[in-house]
Amino acid sequence: xxxxxxxxxxxxxxxxxxxxxxxxxxxxxxxxxxxxxxxxxxxxxxxxxxxxxxxxxxxxxxxxxxxxxxxxxxxxxxxxxxxxxxxxxxxxxxxxxxxxxxxxxxxxxxxxxxxxxxxx
Amino acid sequence: xxxxxxxxxxxxxxxxxxxxxxxxxxxxxxxxxxxxxxxxxxxxxxxxxxxxxxxxxxxxxxxxxxxxxxxxxxxxxxxxxxxxxxxxxxxxxxxxxxxxxxxxxxxxxxxxxxxxxxxxxxxxxxxxxxxxxxxxxxxxxxxxxxxxxxxxxxxxxxxxxxxxxxxxxxxxxxxxxxxxxxxxxxxxxxxxxxxxxxxxxxxxxxxxxxxxxxxxxxxxxxxxxxxxxxxxxxxxxxxxxxxxxxxxxxxxxxxxxxxxxxxxxxxxxxxxxxxxxxxxxxxxxxxxxxxxxxxxxxxxxxxxxxxxxxxxxxxxxxxxxxxxxxxxxxxxxxxxxxxxxxxxxxxxxxxxxxxxxxxxxxxxxxxxxxxxxxxxxxxxxxxxxxxxxxxxxxxxxxxxxxxxxxxxxxxxxxxxxxxxxxxxxxxxxxxxxxxxxxxxxxxxxxxxxxxxxxxxxxxxxxxxxxxxxxxxxxxxxxxxxxxxxxxxxxxxxxxxxxxxxxxxxxxxxxxxxxxxxxxxxxxxxxxxxxxxxxxxxxxxxxxxxxxxxxxxxxxxxxxxxxxxxxxxxxxxxxxxxxxxxxxxxxxxxxxxxxxxxxxxxxxxxxxxxxxxxxxxxxxxxxxxxxxxxxxxxxxxxxxxxxxxxxxxxxxxxxxxxxxxxxxxxxxxxxxxxxxxxxxxxxxxxxxxxxxxxxxxxxxxxxxxxxxxxxxxxxxxxxxxxxxxxxxxxxxxxxxxxxxxxxxxxxxxxxxx
Lengths: 120, 752
Hints:
The complex is a heterodimer. Chain A is of the alpha/beta class. Chain A has five helices and five strands, in the order βαβαβααββα. Chain A has a five-stranded parallel sheet. In chain A, helix 2 packs parallel to helix 3. The termini of chain A are close together. The relative contact order of chain A is 0.18. Chain B is an alpha+beta fold. In chain B, a hairpin with a 2-residue loop joins strand 8 and strand 9 (221-234). Chain B starts with 5 loop residues before the first helix and ends in an 11-residue tail after the last strand. The chains are: A alpha/beta, B alpha+beta.
């Protein structure tokens, strides 16, 4: 799956969220975005499901960890691949069962490569 | 004698022949005691020749006889009474000769008178008689001495004869013993009569000799006699019984006394509580053992007698004992061994105090070795216990005491009193649980059981002292067992380690704090990397977008550039803000805060900050502001701005979007800045630590920011001589109050 795939970006940082969305749109993806875990779950309940989720971990109210746990609990959502976005170099990613991890800071090219790979 | 006439001649010749042939010495003297005639034997008395004697005076004929005879012969001329004189003569051979001289007056036919002396040598006869008398005397004497009586019973006449000694034995005058047949029976006690009679009858019947021991009543007391008898036969018939009676009363009594003494001695030896043994000197085998010895060594005397030390003790021990024995026997001197150990069969190793004594025979040669050993194991143990007890009592640094098997206190030393405050009188007999009153459980019992099983245990825990103080102590419990291995007491040594425990707890607390600080640092680094890398990422992606836009149509570039630039500005501001904070923290942590004081109105400073925040937040949430007018003092505007900005940022971040209130007030000597939100609040337990470096009440990494805000607030407020407080309840919002000393113009406000 390549261009035209639908990607959900979850990040509490508005500037980063919108910038990432703009980059992905430039790359030809359709983008939905949410400012936190809870907003994302609401979105997933009302919209057609995305092909990939880009998940920030460090968020208020519902963190990336909590969202991922919630997602894995729901069979219809569990199979959506997730790319974890984090600044931390020191965490146990196995608990997240993520498709891949992209470490901040990252450039557009790296984002493109990781997303393509995750959608394959 | 004159030979006048035939008849006279014949007479003279006959007489001479008679005289000469006589075995005795014969001499015929005239009235003047001159020899008329003497035979050879007579002449030999005076060592003269017979034919040369005529006319010789009696004194010359027999010088030894003359002095005794002459007066008597002259007297005989008067009374004509013949006599016999016994004269003892010392001879050349020193043997005394005994002569019997028969003297008589004779008359010749002529009417002349003379003396006829016949000298008979009775030496032999007399000696024989004397010997006989002597042996009779000896017999009588020895019978008396030996208390040996004798008797004869002539059956033909049925007469009895008792010897003097036998009479004496029976308490009768000698010569007055029983004389007829069975009369002797009267002198026996009733009880002996039948069987003694039976013995005599048997002898009479068979003629066989007999021997018996029985009692004889003599002078009111009973004497024990040994009687022997035999029969004499004539023509096959028993005609006489004779026998001896020996008084063995003294011997019997001596034997009895000896026996009693022996028994007495045996009883002493047997019952003395010390081990007594005797070894023969040659091979050192045991020949005697007493009961204490059997009990001590754990062997019966049948097992011990005839054996040596090597049969019972380890070789090295036996070597030592035997060497001692040999030394004692060689030197013939007793040896004292004040303390030695011995392997007993059942009792294990015992400590003995011993003495070994040589016993010599009549020639002074060692015959036996006597050993006496006292088992001083218990005494030593008691002495050792007394000593250690004394030692224990005097020890003050340790509580040392004994517990019985029920856990009750038996002893209590000075240390125990010092540590717990209880005196011996107060605690002895009480359960040791008393010291755990109100603390825990029955764990003492568990510890005693463990000590019984393992020998000793070390346990740690609290005690409640008499004054209610709680101390922390470590106790070693050791089981003290009897010989069978059963615990009889528990010895405990306790040390008060309250101080050590306190130091340990303090160290543990510091360690925890250090660990927590490290955890916080790691979390801070995690948060800081998020907070710093997120804007950097945005900047990197924005740069890429900008590049794309520059490559695209100009209309789109113009349309999208303004928000992009805004974002670039925001992200660079954000980065600058974080970097500035980190630098602040670095400065504050090292205590380098330079205050820039100027005369300002506190309310005005606060109002500017609120205005800026309102603008930044675009009016959400609402910020209400109130300030008393003219709060002039010497303030560091920049620092107060920082403090208030931080508090307001927190209020916005944790305030849940609800209105925030900022109040500046004059409270006497203090000016206060109060920032109140209605957000999630802070748990009371977290309120103290939120002002520490890297701390935040919310543990999850939800809220962004570096977690340095309140730390910076406190550091700055304190640098200005003030303090910061928080009042909050979870879910009910939080109110932060900064109290600043209200410095007047010209005054130095930075007092502390």
